[in-house]
Every structure is written in C-alpha cells, then in structure tokens.
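TA notes, week 10

Several of you asked for a full example with nothing omitted. So below is the full record: structure tokens for the whole chain, then the designed sequence directly under it. When grading your own attempts, check the secondary structure regions first.
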C-alpha cells in the first residue's frame, strides 16, 4: 500500500517567514525559504511517503472571491520579497523530486482536498496532510490524518473533538456558524465556537439546526433566522472544493528517496 503526503506549502513557508522578527527584505525571504526547504526535507524523512502532493496558492482571485467579493479582504498581502522568491523555491522543490501544484482560481486547500479524497476513494493507502489549517481537518472524517509539523504532533478524530467540540464531519458546519475572521467568512453574528458546537451536537448538523431554528425563542434563534442566507454562504466559503482538475497522475506525484 502507498502513502500520500499532501503538503500545504504556504502554510509552512508563511509561518517560517513570519516567525522571524526582521523587517521584510529579500534577505529575510531567502533565509525563510532555506528554513522552509529544511522543513520539507524533514517532512519527507519523517513520513517516507510513496507519493507527495505539494500544493501552493496561485495568488489572485479564486472561485470564493467570485462568490463573495469581501472574502479575505482584511488579510495582509504576501510580502513582495517572499512572493518574488517563490518560483525559485518551487524549482528547488522540483530538484528534491517533488511535483509542485500551483493552480489558478482555487486555493491549495482545494487541491489538497481533491487529491486526498481521490487517493482514499481509490484505496491506495494512508493519506497524511501536513498543515495547521483548520479547514483541512475536515478530511480526517474521510480517513486522513493531519500532521502539525511545527509541534510534531498528529491530529486525528479525538484531537478535533477536543479542540473544536465537534466531530470532524461537522467541522465545516461549525466554521460556517462561527465564521472566520482571518478569511473574512461572516458566519452568524455573536455565535462563537462553544455556541456553534452546542447547537450542532444538539441537532446533528447545520441543516437540522436551521430546521429547528424556527422554534428557538432565543436571541440565537432570531439571529439564525435573520442570517440564514449569510450562514449558507459561509458554509460554501469554508467547504473544500473537491473536484479540482489537478492535471497530474499518481505516477507524476510518485516520490523516491534518493
């Protein structure tokens, strides 16, 4: 059986870059990318995958921006020095035997979600996602595991339940209810993680919550009814697109240890 390692490239690069207190510069970008390359090598050595899907955001508008123009409007753009250095970094990853995927109109999360679910559906073996992105933790419900490279720890079903208060299959509904300030996903006003988890655990899923909202004589019930359209828009925004045309074969993603 094989082992797929899906790496959220910018999740690693940005965290390494932002961990350095120096002001933005070409030198800072160069140092950060050298450390990021070491992180990639460590991931490959730690997990010994048979296949690697290394995904990076393309940059620019995606299908989510077309759906909701205010998506990520508050997020600071990537420092220009780092963005300019990324093509060279991708070339170095290719030199390490990796096939880097950078696809327009979608996010790296969508690329990873598509690849991981396809791999698991075909019964090719285990799938590991290297990322700290909460959106990708929903893949645990389908049999994947998430690896936090920075803490050196596994995230599984039990971890998600402890962290978010719901099962992995309800994570999308939870994020839709509570929103995501980082990505500009609105959610329902004044509904935080604990309230969202309580609703989902009581009713079962988002649709069941909304079916019961009509009889909720509480401020939360009023907001759910008033913000129904925003809520379902939020769910679309946080849900992974899993039918991305990747343009690669498994043979192209095969990885051999040199």
């Amino acid at each position: 059986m094989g082992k797929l390692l899906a790496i959220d490239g910018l999740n690693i690069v940005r965290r390494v870059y932002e961990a350095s207190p120096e002001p933005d510069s070409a030198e800072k970008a160069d140092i950060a990318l050298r450390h990021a390359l070491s992180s990639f090598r460590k991931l490959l050595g730690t997990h010994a995958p048979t296949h690697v899907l290394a995904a990076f955001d393309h940059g620019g508008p995606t299908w989510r921006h077309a759906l909701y123009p205010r998506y990520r409007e508050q997020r600071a753009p990537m420092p220009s020095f780092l963005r300019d250095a990324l093509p060279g970094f991708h070339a170095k990853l290719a030199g390490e035997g990796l096939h880097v995927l950078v696809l327009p109109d979608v996010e790296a999360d969508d690329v990873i979600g598509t690849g991981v679910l396809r791999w698991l559906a075909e019964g090719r073996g285990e799938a590991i996602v290297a990322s700290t992105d909460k959106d990708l933790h929903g893949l645990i419900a389908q049999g994947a595991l998430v690896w936090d490279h920075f803490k050196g720890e596994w995230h599984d079903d039990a971890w998600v339940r402890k962290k978010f208060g719901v099962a992995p299959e309800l994570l999308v509904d939870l994020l839709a209810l509570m929103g995501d300030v980082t990505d500009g996903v609105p959610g329902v006003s004044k509904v935080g993680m604990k309230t969202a988890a309580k609703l989902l655990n009581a009713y079962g899923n988002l649709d069941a919550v909304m079916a019961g909202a009509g009889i909720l004589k509480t401020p939360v019930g009023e907001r759910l009814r008033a913000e129904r359209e925003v809520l379902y828009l939020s769910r679309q925004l946080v849900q992974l697109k899993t039918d991305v045309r990747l343009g690669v074969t498994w043979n192209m993603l095969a990885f051999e240890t040199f």
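The longest helix spans residues 26-47. Use that as a sanity check on your answer.
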